[in-house]
Amino acid sequence: MSAVTRFAPSPTGFLHIGGARTALFSYLVAKNLGGKFLLRIEDTDRERSTQEAVDAIFEGMEWLGLKSDFDSVYQTQRFDRYKEVIAQMLAAGTAYYCYATREELDAMRAEQMARKEKPRYDGRWRPEAGKTLPEPPAGVPPVVRFRNPVEGEVVLDDLIKGPIVFANTELDDLIIARADGVPTYNFCVVVDDWDMGITHVIRGDDHVNNTPRQINILKALGAEPPAYAHVSMILGADGAKLSKRHGALGVMEYRAMGFLPEALLNYLVRLGWSHGDQELFTRQEMIEKFDLSKVSSSAARFDMEKAYWVNHQYLKSVDPEVVVPEFEWHLRRMGLDPANGPSLVDVILSQRERCRTLLEMAEKSHFLYADLSGYNEKDAAKHFNADGLHALAGLYKTLKALGTWDAPTLHAAVNGFAEAEKLGLGKVAQPLRVAIVGMAVSPPIDQTLALLGRERTLARLDAAVAWARSRASA
């Protein structure tokens, strides 16, 4: 049977960066083995699950391009199936009703802790040969517990951590259905993985202690357990628990920060996995080269500066057409109409060497899609002096006389004007930048003029001269 993996988040919050890495690893394992990838929403926690979180998970997965090969599954839509399996287990004797009250269980655990024992269910309602159970108390709705084996051990051959052994005597009888009939997380996961033919379970190592219980339930159902791989946590660059200051953000916050989805995936795949010294991977290369056996069992460290570096490498090297949709998204988010300016591809090509993110690129390209709202005070004071005004007035005449408006022609015109006036290029280009961009920073001046276009350039030059003269006379 071909591989089937799943990403199964609980919709109690946004898709965070750790969840995105787990989803990516699951996706890559499936694709590397020629199999399929499933998105499953584990929403049995009705109090904490929200539609907003469900929507955020789908939005993040779509943006990252981690598409499910099946219709997405919701656990709350499978309650009839869970109840069917529980009924089968009750009939087979692998599950039983437990009528212990909350007060009884609290007292039991308090006594165990007083004796310095590990708190655990004592099996008081567990059926055993020769054991007489009391009559079920009236008015007490029972939970259903799994009848865990009391002998032997569970050997988890973890694909990342290696063999881990759990003694069955350390595992008490897990509740698989609450008193209100709602099945519990550990049980639903088992039935889902069984029904959906999941062959590999890749998840965070906070689930390690759940795994032996789930394996025992699968065996009780006569099912073959999948292979398990538990991914270590992500720490901050300083070794502390990952927090927002380190980069523990929702995936869509990275979009707002100006990351390309492929760049973010590239950074995430390298958190705990490597392929020699290679740093940058296409999606196809990730699929072809990813191997769980090469994933480290040690915690990875999230380095925001490295994430920015990876994003910049992508911006500089990928086909600009790939960047266009994301760049357009940022411009529109700033209230700009991409149709009200130059080609997005041309702007990307001119800006990508100096911009680490698309947000930075959009901010630095604002002047191309909207009228100037003013000038940087410091730059205007420095460059709109008498020499600057003289240069701007002369440039206006020089540029207006051009018959062709492209970067080579503009380059020759600006340089020729500087030579004719015996001025350094900086004393010409910098006032020109402030006049047309609003500040003294922009792509090369010939590219900037070509992108802005003849009419806007001349209008802004004229306006800058008028503004500077009015300030001088005030």
TrEMBL record:
Residues 330-464 form the Aminoacyl-tRNA synthetase class I anticodon-binding domain. Its EC number is 6.1.1.17. Residues 4-307 form the Glutamyl/glutaminyl-tRNA synthetase class Ib catalytic domain. Residues 119-140 are annotated as: Disordered. CDD domains: GluRS_core. Keywords: Aminoacyl-tRNA synthetase, ATP-binding, Cytoplasm, Ligase, Nucleotide-binding, Protein biosynthesis. Its main location: cytoplasm. A motif ('HIGH' region) lies at residues 9-19. GO terms for molecular function: ATP binding; glutamate-tRNA ligase activity; tRNA binding; zinc ion binding. ATP binds at K244. Residues 119-129 have a biased composition (Basic and acidic residues). The keyword Signal does not apply. Monomer. HAMAP family: Glu_tRNA_synth_type1 (MF_00022). Belongs to the class-I aminoacyl-tRNA synthetase family. Glutamate--tRNA ligase type 1 subfamily. This is Glutamate--tRNA ligase. It comes from Hydrocarboniphaga effusa AP103.
